[in-house]
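Reopening this one. Same input as before:
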Amino acid sequence: MTETPAARHYSEQQAGSLTSGDHLLLPDGERTAEIQRVELEPDDFGTPAVVLASLTGGGTIRIAAGSTVRVAHSVVHDVSLQDLMLEDEANENPASDAVTRLPAAAHPSRDEQRGAEPLEKQPPAAAEAAPAAPAVVVPPLPAIPPAVSGPSAEELARIPEPQGTPESVVAAAAEEHPDAVGVLLLADKLAKGINFKSGSCLKDLSDLAHELFITLKDPDGALAVADLLNVLPFDGNPGRWASVEASLALSSYICRQDRQDDRAEVYEKLLRTPESQETDPFKARMNAKVRQRSLNEPNLYDKEIFRSIDNSNHEAEREWRLLRLESLLFLRAHGGSETIGLGELQRRISNELEAVRA
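Same output, byte for byte:
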């Protein structure tokens, strides 16, 4: 069996399913190049946008994530046993290369030379000497991430119903801390009316819950306010969902610390429900890949914090540390990542809480 450079066929696949080792047909439509590494570049909303394919010979090809590209596969053609035997002779006797490289039709057959029987009547051992054609292996697509199911009605019942209207819940939390300026300012803004379709209103509620827990060490008041957000469904708006997400992560941590593990699991399920919203398998794979990368390489604002320390700007340092704390709480609610385990997360969260409360 032999393989010639021209003996190739092409299959079409989406750029997001490219893997290392694939032979990509280049934009000129004539040459192919082997892919050494594939990376995904998201847009500003976190959606996979561009596939960066690094080639073994150097250089990088940029492809839109949803584009269809052509990948070359080798096709092995059957040849006669006669050609195989001639090739074997060529390997044993290099001096005869010039002869054995001629097409099979240019050589007199063994039947004509020796008057032997036709090929099909030769002993079975000779026919078995021909190796079987290797199968063309097509790289499999990345696995579809498992679907994340939301909590059941029974699990949702673990979240207590609010005592009164949302405005009264906020007012009750503020009354417990009459000297806390930050709480009073947020409560005054929310007292005018809470609109759960307003992104700024959701942000104020999330900030109030964090202020109650982090600064005033009031986990009960923080949970009461956070639960106003925690039951809101994901509406596809990343801006509004960011506040709900932060509230769910905070609630999960408070309940874990208070050994309310069953209730914490509900918050964590609600946090992950947007991950199962995508029904397209390709987009689901890409989203899972981007999400795992963000979990493995979280933004913990190290440069900004160190710069604030160098400038002795304690207020700016505290603000950056609060953002770092939110990132760590999110990772904790997600069960950690491939790079930061739960034990290390718990230690870092404790350190940040101590730093921002100082």
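So the earlier flakiness isn't reproducible anymore. For the record, The beta strands are 8-14, 23-25, 32-42, 48-55, 60-64, 68-74.
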